Amino acid sequence: MDVIFFLQCFYHTQVMKSSLLILLYFVVGIVIAYFLKLPIWFVESDLSAWALYLLMFIVGISVGSDPSFRSLFKRINWHVILVPLSVIVGSLSATAVVSYWLYHISVAQAMAVGAGFGYYSLSAVLIAQMSGQELGVVALLANIIREVLTLAFAPLLVRFFGRYATIAAGGATAMDTTLPVVVRYSGKDLSVVAIFTGVVLSLLVPLLVPFLLTVFG
Q1: Which uninterrupted H or E stretch holds 135?
Q2: How does 111-142 read in b/e, with b if 16+ C-beta sit within 10 Å?
Q3: Residue at 139 is within a domain
Q4: Domain membership of residue 173 as a residue range
Q5: Strands (E), 61-202
Q6: So what's the pLDDT on residue 172?
Q7: Which of 35, 36, 121, 196 has its CA 20 to 30 A from that of 76?
Q8: What are the DSSP calls for 79-120, one per residue?
Q9: How far apart are CA 155 and CA 17, in angstroms?
Q10: pLDDT in the model for residue 36
Q11: Quick count: other Cβ atoms within 10 Å of Cβ 92?
Q12: Residue 7 has pLDDT above 60, yes or no
């Protein structure tokens, strides 16, 4: 048990380092673009769009090649659908309420940021493409913070809000990066629920974000 606990703690630390490393790369990109004169073709090209296409392709491969993907839906009952549904309703309603205190962000834009569900890499690129780089930065930081807070405060979330709180907080990341803390603090029996929730939310991000920005933006 001590070895398993050590490995879980080690993986937990590595995941947090990974999130912070991604944030560091983002900051380095800002610094380079600010202080160095980059070629016009590099700045004005559609590199971010092609990066998005590549990311969507990789996401499709990772989901389709997962050996547990097919058997996952056979092992759950329909009540589990309420978990990702609750995460969607909670995330969108909360960001809609918060938007009333944000003068430069509309309700639809705030909800689009919330619709990232912790999937910062995909949602940030989508939002930046549709609503500008500034909102894309907000989406990136908001969803990275969501993942980091889930990893850092998982024990408190379970203590004050129940076992499903880690899944709700992790959102789309509940199937990968935050899964270890779900198993550790919420129990192994919720691992299937976490994976199912993460898969559903990950698949909905590229649908919900453009829908919110196009229809309500």
Answers
A1: helix 133-161
A2: bbbbbbbbbbbbbbbbbbbbbeeebbebbbeb
A3: yes
A4: 46-215
A5: none
A6: 93
A7: 121
A8: GGGHHHHHHHHHHHHHHHHHGGG-TTS-HHHHHHHHTTTT-H
A9: 19
A10: 77
A11: 19
A12: no
- Measured between alpha carbons, how far is 115 from 75 in angstroms, rounded to an integer? 27
Tokens 């920005």: give the residue.
Answer: 213
Domain annotation covers residue 15: no
Q: Note whether residue 174 is domain-resident.
A: yes
How many structural domains are present in the chain?
1
Q: Does the pLDDT at position 191 exceed 70?
A: yes
| 163 exposure class (CB count in 10 Å sphere: 0-12, 13-18, 19+) | middle
133 domain-assigned: yes
For residue 10, CA distances in Å to 21, 31, 50, 123, 169 come to 16, 31, 34, 28, 21
Determine if the pTM surpasses 0.90. Answer: no
Q: What is the 3-state secondary structure (H, E, C) of 2-55?
A: HHHHHHHHHHHHHHHHHHHHHHHHHHHHHHHHHHCCCCHHHHHCCHHHHHHHHH
